[in-house]
């Protein structure tokens, strides 16, 4: 079968399409004939920086949709031919992917395989950030960095659905503002001046919840606009700067809480909790109308093209590989 691998760290050019043996499921595992694979920023960090790469060569890809090809023992009700989406820790950029049954989900009725590929990673992440970690309450004000990206597109809609009184987004360019405004945001600010803008529109009070995937110095700026008893949640370090160190002097004056979240860690340490989260999150799509638009689709062999687009910071919504 064909799969995308990289044998060394580097730019998109290190991604190669190769022939590899087809995986066979063991106990608690299934194999999936991949229809679509999601492209995530974690894939970029794996290829460029070795993020969560234990050895080379490595097959990237965290989420797929497709048909179950074969099942191992003890996989519950999963059967060959069933339409599913799956969250996996590598190996999604392939014609056949191996997945633990604990992180495989039947695609909700009425949704296509293409839509299904947008669900496993981004939707549970956004749901967990708002409802589990930040504990969104009705009438909270919410700020989301990266508002035009995958998580940001969903988070704006979920915050609005959850009763937020105001939802503010931050984008890197004016080209992305229109996309974000269609995703539940009341106002969208540019990254260069967002901290000043947020304090202006909130009359200096700041926001109740802020979600930050950027890290570094940007994280400090995000913290500066969190109001009294507010909650700041970090879920990435796309800036690749040194993490900002938080001390009592940063949190005591306003009673601010600072937390973090990683869906990769949750999948590895508590797959049952991930399944519960995913089921609640998927419900917002089938019943609440939440959607994650696919902005670009690439052939499997052109995974490098998808990485170039995502790294350019010009994309919005979700990128997929068509297998």
TrEMBL record:
Q: Name it.
A: Zinc-binding alcohol dehydrogenase family protein
Its taxonomic path starts at:
Bacteria, Bacillati, Actinomycetota, Actinomycetes, Kitasatosporales
The superkingdom of the source organism is Bacteria
Origin species: Streptomyces polygonati
Task: Give yes or no: UniProt keyword Transport.
Answer: no
User: What Pfam families does this protein's entry cite?
Assistant: ADH_N, ADH_zinc_N
Q: Where is the Enoyl reductase (ER) domain?
A: 10-321
Q: What keywords were assigned to this record?
A: NADP, Oxidoreductase
């Amino acid at each position: 079968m064909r799969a995308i691998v990289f044998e060394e760290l580097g730019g998109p050019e290190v991604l190669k399409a190769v022939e590899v043996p087809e995986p066979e499921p063991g106990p608690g595992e299934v194999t999936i004939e991949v229809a679509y694979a999601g492209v995530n920023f974690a894939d970029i960090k794996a290829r460029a920086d070795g993020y969560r790469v234990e050895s080379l060569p490595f097959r990237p890809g965290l989420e797929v949709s497709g048909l179950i090809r074969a099942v191992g023992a003890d996989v519950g009700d999963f059967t060959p031919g069933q339409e599913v989406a799956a969250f996996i820790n590598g190996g999604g950029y392939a014609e056949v992917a191996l997945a633990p049954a604990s992180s495989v989900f039947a695609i909700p009725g009425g949704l296509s395989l293409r839509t299904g590929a947008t669900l496993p990673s981004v939707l549970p992440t956004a749901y967990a950030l708002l409802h589990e970690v930040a504990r969104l309450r009705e009438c909270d004000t919410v700020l989301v960095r990266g508002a035009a990206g995958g998580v940001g597109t969903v988070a704006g809609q979920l915050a609005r659905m959850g009763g937020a009184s105001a939802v503010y987004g931050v984008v890197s360019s004016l080209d992305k503002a229109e996309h974000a405004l269609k995703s539940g945001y009341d106002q969208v600010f540019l990254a260069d001046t967002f901290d000043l803008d947020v304090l202006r529109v909130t009359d200096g009070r700041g926001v109740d919840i802020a979600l930050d995937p950027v890290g570094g110095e940007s994280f400090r700026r995000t913290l500066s606009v969190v109001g009294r008893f507010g909650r700041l949640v970090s879920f990435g370090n796309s800036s690749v700067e040194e993490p900002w160190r938080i001390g009592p002097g940063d949190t005591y004056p306003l009673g601010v809480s600072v937390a973090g979240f990683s869906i990769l860690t949750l999948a590895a340490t508590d797959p049952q909790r991930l399944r519960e989260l995913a089921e609640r999150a998927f419900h917002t799509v089938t019943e609440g109308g939440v959607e994650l638009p696919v902005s670009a689709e690439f052939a499997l062999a052109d995974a490098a093209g998808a990485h170039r687009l995502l790294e350019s910071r010009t994309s919005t919504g979700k990128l997929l590989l068509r297998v």
